[in-house]
Specification:
single chain; about 475 residues; alpha/beta; Aldehyde Dehydrogenase, Chain A, domain 1; Aldehyde Dehydrogenase, Chain A, domain 2; seven-stranded mixed β-sheet; six-stranded mixed β-sheet; about 35% helix; globular
Length: about 475
């Protein structure tokens, strides 16, 4: 398929960077350049800031009913274009076409959800002490938003920020991922075609640090939303704090999986043989530290090894492929470095542990046992197709290990005991925990972490709140 170059979308127009600069885009399945994306400078950002302010002045006065109608039209367009958008996503990100199409279709569901939320931003009437006084709380859009989105789920993460902001009545500048620029551009085009006015949505690309350091402090911007690493998230939160800007931070994790001795081990093996290697493990909620009761540890490891070895790794356009490449050579080297460190310190490499070939950025599904908490990979998020399996004897020990790290985004648990499930739900320190199934990431449920994994939700009824401010209005007849 043909891959088109991606421009900046500012004030309702696609345009090159003023300087003419661009960034090459690779296909991670081949390592070859397939196109380029415009690289914004501060001159381009100034245009975007002017546009987003004008867009906000218009959009904030647009009735919630009309905003919802436009979002629903965009959802319909995205579903109609899902096959084409999925092909773009697979070409630039590498994930299997079936995963890309699922992600694209989910964007329609996200838009539908927030269309409903646009009409449910209720205020409040407060009983006054005097019968002649009225006391009310109005919910109003916070203002123009700067959003920063990652390459691993460029459609899913972009649409969550876009939909929440637009539903609330905000205008937005999205700093899209340079590695995967064309798929979020397709979302923006669908929103424009659905009737979002010029300036309400703007899309830029460039050097992340340069763009964030310019947009976040700028007086036009009133809120920032970021999805990415803990280290960068802390820097941006600090920057926003210095300028009294609201933030939503969805940061990294290192998700524990607790498998008790009363769990259906074979069902768990089947589930994670697929889910662990989704997007080549490059997901913030990727199950990583598998804590397995010693009674079923060997059974789980044996089945998990067989499942990992059966994962077909290859180009995402091959219908047989179940896992695509890592995003770039840097990610391959990072994963390899952590695996090598663990093995050098005594971990057992049960399967995988190597790059596949020298064309593209493919890496073997990998399982390590014999782990120690001092190993890098037990503390740093692998963000790759690596599973770490450790036995436990007492549930207390498993909970302690699950909570040992400063991050707390997602967690998984499997048990047939209601008592154990209740305890895990209350004691695991994570923003989300799914027990006996995988149920995270739907538009209608919260999505976010605690501790160093950030704050705020990008799903559920809470997700629109950070884009709204409360204004208290009290009056009496003159």
């Amino acid at each position: 398929m043909q891959y088109e170059d991606t421009g900046l979308y500012i004030g309702g127009e696609w345009r090159p960077a003023i300087s003419g600069a661009f960034i090459p885009v690779e296909n991670p399945a081949t390592g070859q350049q397939i196109g380029q994306v415009a690289k914004a400078s501060t001159d381009d950002l100034d245009l975007a800031l002017t546009a987003v302010q004008a867009g906000f002045d218009l959009w904030r006065r647009t009735a919630a009913f009309e905003r919802a109608s436009i979002l629903r039209r965009a959802a319909t367009l995205i579903r109609e274009r899902a096959d084409r958008i999925a092909e773009i996503l697979t070409l630039e990100q590498g994930k299997p076409l079936t995963e890309a199409r699922t992600e694209t279709l989910l964007a329609g569901d996200v838009l539908d959800w927030f269309a409903g939320e646009a009409q449910r931003t209720y205020g409040q009437l407060i009983p006054a002490r005097s019968p002649s006084v009225t006391q009310a709380v109005h919910k109003l859009p916070v203002g123009p938003v700067a959003a920063f989105t990652p390459w691993n789920f460029p459609i899913n993460q972009t649409i969550r920020k876009l939909a929440a902001a637009l539903a609330a009545g905000c205008a937005i500048i999205v700093k899209g991922p340079e590695e995967t620029p064309a798929s979020p551009a397709a979302l923006v085009q669908a929103l424009a075609d659905a009737g979002v006015p010029a300036g309400v949505v703007n899309l830029v690309y460039g050097v992340p640090a340069e763009i964030s350091s310019y947009l976040i402090p700028h007086p036009v911007i009133r809120k920032a939303s970021f999805t990415g690493s803990v280290a960068v998230g802390k820097q941006l939160a600090e920057l926003a704090g210095r300028h009294m800007k609201r933030t939503t931070m969805e940061l990294g994790g290192h998700a524990p999986v607790i498998i008790c001795d009363d769990a259906d081990v074979q069902a768990v093996v089947a589930l994670f043989s697929a889910f662990k290697f989704r997007a080549a493990g490059q997901t913030c909620i990727s199950p990583t530290r598998f804590l397995v009761h010693r009674k079923v540890h060997d059974e789980f490891v044996e089945g998990f090894i067989a499942g990992a070895r059966n994962v077909k790794v290859g180009d995402g356009f091959d219908p047989a492929t179940r896992m695509g490449p890592l995003i770039n050579l840097k990610r391959v080297q990072a994963v390899q470095g952590m695996v090598d460190d663990a093995v050098a310190k005594g971990a057992k490499l049960e399967t995988g542990g190597r790059r596949i070939g020298d064309t593209g950025y493919f890496y073997e599904p990998t399982i390590l046992t014999g782990l120690d908490p001092a190993m890098r990979i037990m503390n740093e998020e692998p963000f790759g197709p690596v599973a770490l399996v450790s036995p436990f004897d007492e549930l207390d020990a498993a909970i302690t290990e699950a909570n040992r790290l400063p991050v707390g985004l997602g967690a998984f648990a499997f048990t047939s005991s209601a008592r154990t499930a209740h305890r895990l739900a209350n004691e695991i320190e994570s923003g989300m925990i799914t027990i006996n199934h995988i149920g995270m990431g739907l538009p209608e449920v919260p999505f976010g972490g605690i501790k160093d994994s950030g704050y705020g939700s990008e799903g559920g009824s809470d997700a629109i709140e950070p884009y709204l401010v409360s204004r208290f209005v009290t009056s009496q007849p003159g």
